[in-house]
Design a protein that fits this description.
heterodimer, A: about 230 residues, two-stranded antiparallel sheet, 11 helices, about 40% helix, B: about 300 residues, mainly alpha, ABC transporter involved in vitamin B12 uptake, BtuC, globular, binds adenosine-5'-triphosphate, binds magnesium ion
């Protein structure tokens, strides 16, 4: 994958099994976000295939992808800051079935994050960092995805909130949604991941189950700092 | 202050508010386009001129009232805006060029072409639209016999103002209560995030340019019973819309409404107390003062 003429990701091939939590870890600038953006069509790959649910999706227009059941909770949240929390949730359910189920999905999100219910009429830009992250996750869930991709959902959150967010991610999977997560918070991520990949400067260098990577000497020194 | 002086002051402020309402409609269109496309549409006043000529032609040939013409000119301008966006502005947006603002320069070209086409079809003569109610007015004493002050309200100005409010209210409803309207706002706030939500951003751009054009076309019809019309009338209105957009805070609809009212009242005061020809000077004083003292525009004053 390229930005302009600069290639930042090479020959990356990986898969996520249905109902799994898969994790992608790696240093800053390794290309993790670029991979997620490529899957959701914001960055066009120079070559290769992306297969989702048995179908090639690399040619699908990015705005049509959400209807295939793919949701992307982007890095740095990317909320619609001049809209209320509730309007942000509405934006997550613009299409097809998700639109019909809007009221139900909203109730589900509010149950997951009671804070959001209290703050539903507040502008997203004025929410606290933690609330914003909850809203970003909630907005992603509003489309009733079969695969949801989280890009650094714990970024900038206090440890206690990080724990809550990881608990929510486990819950999302428990309810049948496949999860692909990109994280700097390597220890907690590997602890919940069924499968994990390590990316270094645009190339995959290691893969395995979350538990096996957690014990790996290289991962320990390079990413866990022990 | 004598009661005559008070009457003059109130009369001036009322006229200013009426003018401001129309200015607001003019500027909301530019603001919407600015928000979604991140470009300043320097053909905005010329699109208004097109709306005015449509209403003028409908009146001259078919005796259709300018207020009815709103319902014809607005859809026509919508279509024109969509086509301009699709076939001229979009292709230029995709090209990397040495000029970072080449779409803005393109809008200048579009404006020139529209003004020249108007000259070809209608000549450069000044036109007026002799509606029967042009000089009719309402007087306070008609409603309230013993009113201590006598104020008059021009009929076309008040009807135009009423239409401007109505259109703004419908637009507000559209932008805040419908999924399509919310998608437009979302696109303005974060293009990529909107894509991820399934918003067809390219279509929103066309829709927005169409919407902005139809609003300014409607404003043109509302100005017609009040103003003279000539092919180069657009330039000054582009400038007015631009000043209001800066005054209101780039990209803010509420700011455009407030900015429109402020500019309208300010110009009206300048015209009464300094002199008719001084309104454009007042406009520039406001423009420069805003850039220096409230660079975020009026809306920034309300935030924190
Ligand atoms: N729009 C862009 N234009 C040019 N280069 C880019 C662009 N976006 C990202 N890059 C570069 O691509 C590389 C990979 O970026 P990416 O955002 O995918 O990293 P990341 O693994 O997500 O890092 P982080 O953990 O810091 O979020 C980086 O070197 C980055 O500078
Ligand atoms: Mg990243």
């Amino acid at each position: 994958m390229f930005y302009g003429d600069v290639q930042v990701v090479w020959d990356v091939s990986f898969s996520v099994g249905r109902g799994e939590i898969a994790a992608l870890i790696g240093a800053n600038g390794a290309g993790k976000s670029t991979i997620l953006k490529t899957i959701s069509g914001i960055v066009k790959p120079a070559g290769g295939k992306i297969i989702f649910d048995g179908k090639e999706i690399q040619h699908i227009e990015p705005y049509e992808l959400i209807e295939t059941g793919l949701a992307h909770v982007p890095e740095a949240r990317r909320l619609f800051v001049e809209m209320t929390a509730e309007e942000n949730l509405d934006m997550g359910s613009l299409k097809g079935n998700a639109k019909k189920m809007r009221a139900d999905s909203k109730a589900m999100v509010f149950e997951l994050f009671p804070r959001l219910k209290e703050r539903r009429n507040q502008l997203a830009g004025t929410l606290s960092g933690g609330e914003q992250q909850m809203l970003a996750i909630g907005r992603g869930l509003m489309s009733k995805p079969t695969l949801i991709m989280f890009d650094e959902p714990s970024l900038g959150l206090a440890p206690i909130l990080v724990r809550d967010i990881f608990a929510v991610i486990k819950k999302v999977r428990a309810e049948g949604t496949t999860v692909l997560i990109v994280e700097q918070n390597v220890k907690q991520t590997l602890a919940i991941a069924d499968r994990a990949y390590v990316l270094a400067t645009g190339k995959l260098v290691m893969e395995g189950t979350g538990a096996s990577l957690l014990d790996d000497e290289h991962v320990k020194t390079a990413y866990l700092g022990v | 202050m004598t009661s005559v002086q008070l009457e003059v002051l109130l009369q001036t402020i009322i006229s200013g508010i009426f003018l401001g309402g129309l200015y607001a409609l003019l500027a909301i269109g530019m603001t919407l386009i600015m928000g979604v496309m991140k470009i300043i549409n320097l053909a905005h006043g010329e699109l208004m001129m097109v709306g005015m000529y449509i209403a003028y032609a409908l009146f001259s040939f078919f005796k259709i009232d300018p207020y009815i013409a709103v319902f014809i000119a607005a859809p026509v301008l919508f279509g024109l805006g969509v086509l301009l966006q699709k076939f001229l502005i979009n292709p230029v947006m995709k090209v990397d060029s040495i000029l970072p603002e080449n779409q803005v320069i393109l809008t200048v070209g579009i404006g020139m072409v529209l003004a020249n086409l108007a000259t070809i079809f209608f000549s450069s003569d000044y036109r007026s639209t002799p509606v029967t109610y042009a000089t009719k007015a309402w007087y306070i004493s008609d409603f309230w016999k013993d009113s201590p002050l006598e104020l008059s309200i021009s009929l076309p100005w008040s009807v135009s103002f009423f239409f401007a409010i109505l259109i703004t209210a419908v637009l507000w409803f559209f932008l805040t209560k419908t999924d399509l309207g919310k998608s437009i706002r979302a696109t303005a706030q974060d293009n990529d995030a909107a894509l991820l939500m399934g918003v067809n951003v390219m279509r929103m751009r066309m829709l927005t340019f169409g919407l902005g054009s139809s609003l300014v076309g409607a404003a043109g019809c509302l100005f017609l019973p009040i103003y003279y019309l000539f092919p180069d009338i657009g330039g000054q209105f582009t400038l007015i819309a631009f000043v209001i957009t800066i005054l209101g805070g780039l990209g803010s609809t509420v700011g455009a409404i407030l900015g429109g009212l402020v500019l309208g009242v300010f110009e009206s005061l300048t015209a009464t107390y300094v002199g008719m020809g001084w309104a454009p000077v007042g406009r520039f004083i406001i423009f420069i003062a805003v850039l220096i003292f409230i660079p975020g525009g009026i809306v920034s004053l309300f935030k924190k």
